[in-house]
Design brief:
Structural class of chain B: mainly alpha
Protein name (chain B): Cobalamin import system permease protein BtuC
Number of domains of chain B: 1
Radius of gyration of chain B: 22 Å
Shape of chain B: globular
Subcellular location (chain B): Cell membrane
Helix content of chain A: 25-40%
Radius of gyration of chain A: 20 Å
Number of helices of chain A: 11
Largest sheet of chain A: 6 strands, mixed
Distance between the termini of chain B: 42 Å
Shape of chain A: globular
Structural class of chain A: alpha/beta
InterPro entries (chain B): ABC_BtuC-like, ABC_transptr_permease_BtuC
CATH architecture of the largest domain in chain A: 3-Layer(aba) Sandwich
CATH topology of the largest domain in chain A: Rossmann fold
Largest sheet of chain B: none
Membrane topology (chain B): Multi-pass membrane protein
Number of strands of chain A: 12
Order of helices and strands of chain B: HHHHHHHHHHHHHHHH
Helix content of chain B: over 70%
Oligomer: heterodimer
Strand order of the largest sheet of chain A: 6-7-8-3-9-10
CATH architecture of chain B: Orthogonal Bundle
Subunit structure (chain B): The complex is composed of two ATP-binding proteins (BtuD), two transmembrane proteins (BtuC) and a solute-binding protein (BtuF).
Strand content of chain B: under 5%
Number of helices of chain B: 16
Order of helices and strands of chain A: HHEEEHEEHEHHHEHEHEEHHEE
Chain lengths: ~300, ~375
């Protein structure tokens, strides 16, 4: 874990990280959620073959894990399986040593949060009201929000940097701003594990950066395990502590970004000819050419038969 | 400095609350004004006209309002107090209960409409879209045609029929859970089958009087509304409204879509079913006393949402006031417009509601999603 982090390039001054690191080292294991899936077989009703066929993943606690892979590689499916949105045909998901389906529904929602790609925005709802709904798993049937709930909501709004939008109608916001609001709501849910399904896809560069910085702040400031699906390899390289590359529903590589994101892997998994440069801004991926299906990659492993 | 910011934040929150409440206040005050105006018109005019002052005095006659005899008569079904004057009888026995029934029916239709719209996440949903009305209607026609002796328990039958139709719709729509679209489509299918059977049943009715009664019931009318109907509808209404207001938090979360609600730890199918159950109860209370009155449940939640937004508590509160106002207002038109001929109020709501709905369709581009 130490290598992975130290070689990551920070935009922030390095000392803020080194100050927080020893603390997180000592506390690891006391509170952080152990989160893993083993031998997961995941599919959809109506499909003959499972999309993910017998994969295991152990998510390092308190870190950011990125799932990458081309379209249809099963990364979103794997995420949904981990979130108990798709019940696996076989295999188990464990949170803190307990099977995920042994949790009560609200109890699970206090432990594990999922932000999907598509979200429905009701009309005429203010940003604050929407974020408050993230507290639903904490409120009883007749309860209203407690002071503590309001503090968590305030904190989530601050973390997501949307204080200035607080009283605005959500449906009057831009796509990027809406995404920040959804993330604030997921933060207000105050879970040990947060799963994000392509949180940056379709956003402009500014909001992509904002989203990824929130993820980073979350990781640094609170004890939360983040698993996110990313479409953008460069983002995974830059922000993730741990990268899992998938293709055709199976894991091709996992580990710290600089070990995983290599020219060979890009050729194998994404079928592109790309240069991977180790620059002062971290690993940079410069795509060159698409490889024709089945073409032999320039170097390294022979392609696995599909 | 931090304190100043805190205070500022509180002020702003209070301001936002006040703004939301003031919009609800607008709906409430406007509705009460319409309700009061309709009440005065309804009480004054008719076959036995009263001067405005007379009508007013009779309605607020302390001797009647605070009389235990009158209360026993109205709410417990005791005999009509003998000391009432002819004028008091007309106002208190004929015109006021009709207004009261109208208000109860309006509140039920509007609130259940709001509930169904949220459950199906479809602005075009209404108590009638999920087959509830056609189920109830079929049972009523069956009773009128073949079991005329069971007329006194008709409302109960209507509720059961509506509930059964809803269960059928739910069963048809179920495939690894339900979806709003499947629910609406199943509702339309069940509704049209039941509607056809209803029309077929008309050919088996021999008695013209029965046919007229069935026809009036199917178009929705308050013509026969009296204290008896108030006594039938009131308990159901109170229960349904109380239940609806306890689930506002669930409604708010359900509005975010099934996926999000599920991620927030809500057992979506159970909650959906329970809320729809409240809606059926509420609809049954209205159908039982007034028959099938269309468009109120469709349009009132719509109008309220346009003003107060989709916060469920505000929405339901707004519906609770605007529904009665709209229905009682429409009933004034139904009773007095073509006097001495009375129209069923459902005809008026249909004539007014249809064009309003068309107007919405043309004005809004994304009509349909709540």
């Amino acid at each position: 874990m130490g290598d992975g982090r130290s070689s990551r390039v920070e935009r922030e001054p390095a000392d803020s990280r080194s100050a927080s690191e020893p603390e997180s080292e000592t506390e690891t294991g006391t509170e952080a959620a152990d989160f893993s899936g083993s031998d997961l077989v995941l599919g959809y009703p109506g499909l003959d073959d499972p999309v993910v066929d017998g994969e295991s993943i152990a998510v390092p606690p308190d870190e950011v894990t990125a799932l990458i892979g081309p379209n249809g590689s099963g990364k979103s499916t794997l995420l949904k399986g981990l979130a108990d949105k798709i019940s696996p045909d076989s295999g188990t998901v464990l949170v803190d040593g307990r099977q995920i389906d042994a949790f009560g529904s609200k109890e699970l929602a206090r432990t594990l949060g999922l932000l999907s790609q598509e979200n429905v925005v009701p009309t005429g709802i203010s940003v604050e009201d929407l974020v408050e709904r993230g507290r639903y798993p904490y409120t009883g049937f007749f309860d209203s929000l407690s002071d503590e709930d309001r503090e968590v909501v305030d904190e989530a709004i601050r973390l997501a940097g949307i204080d200035h939008l607080r009283d605005r109608d959500v449906d009057s916001l831009s796509g990027g701003q809406k995404q920040l609001v959804w993330i604030a709501m997921a933060i207000a849910q105050d879970t040990d594990v947060l799963l994000l399904d392509e949180p940056t896809t379709f956003l402009d560069p500014q909001h992509q950066l904002e989203v990824m910085q929130i993820v980073e702040t979350l990781r640094d400031e609170s004890r939360i395990t983040v698993v996110l699906v990313l479409h953008d390899i460069a983002q995974a390289a830059r922000y993730a502590d741990h990268v899992v590359a998938l293709k055709d529903g199976s894991m091709r590589a996992r580990g710290p970004p600089e070990d995983v994101i290599t020219e060979e892997l890009l050729a194998d998994v994404f079928e592109i000819d790309a240069a991977v440069l180790d620059t002062e801004y971290g690993i940079q991926v410069v795509p060159q050419n698409p490889l024709a299906d089945g073409a032999v990659p320039p170097t390294g492993d022979p392609p696995t038969p599909d | 400095m931090a304190k100043a910011f805190d205070r500022l934040a509180k002020l702003r929150a209070a301001g936002a609350d006040w703004y939301a409440t003031s919009k609800l206040g607008l709906v409430v005050v406007g509705s009460l004004a319409v309700l009061l105006g309709s009440t005065i018109l309804q009480v004054s005019f008719g076959a036995y006209p009263l001067a405005l002052g007379e009508a007013w005095n009779t309605v607020f006659d302390a001797q009647v309002v605070f009389s235990p005899d009158v209360w026993r008569w109205a709410f417990l079904g005791a005999n009509v107090p003998e000391w009432l004057t002819r004028q008091q009888i007309i106002v208190w026995n004929l015109r006021l209960p009709r207004i009261l029934v109208g208000a109860l029916v309006g509140a039920n239709l509007a609130v259940s409409g709001a509930l169904f719209q949220i459950v199906t996440r479809n602005e075009l949903a209404s108590p009638y879209i999920l087959g509830v009305s056609d189920g109830a209607g079929l049972v009523v026609l069956l009773t009128l045609t073949f079991f005329y002796g069971l007329m006194p328990v008709l409302p109960l039958f209507a509720a059961i029929g509506g509930g059964l139709a809803f269960l059928l719709v739910y069963a048809i729509a179920w495939k690894n859970g339900t979806s709003p679209v499947r629910l609406v489509l199943a509702g339309v299918v069940v509704g049209s089958v039941f509607g056809s059977v209803q029309r077929a049943l008309f050919f088996f009715i021999d008695d013209l009087g029965v046919a007229m009664a069935a026809q009036a019931w199917l178009s929705g009318t308050l013509m026969n509304a009296g204290w008896e109907e108030v006594r039938i509808a009131l308990p159901f209404t109170v229960i349904a409204m109380a239940l609806a207001f306890t689930v506002t938090q669930e409604l708010d979360v359900l509005l975010l879509g099934a996926d999000r609600a599920d991620s927030l730890g809500m057992p979506v199918e159970k909650v959906r079913f329970a809320i729809a159950g409240i809606g059926v109860l509420s609809t049954a209370a209205a159908i039982a006393v007034a028959g099938l009155i269309g468009f109120v449940g469709l349009i009132v939640p719509h109008m309220v949402r346009n003003i107060v937004g989709s916060d469920s508590k505000l929405l339901l509160a707004g519906c609770l006031f605007l529904g009665p106002a709209l229905l009682v207002g429409a009933d004034v038109g139904a009773r007095l417009a073509l006097s001495p001929v009375q129209l069923p109020v459902g005809v008026i709501t249909g004539i007014v509601g249809g064009p309003y709905f068309l107007y919405l369709m043309r004005k809004k581009t994304n009509l349909g999603e709540v």
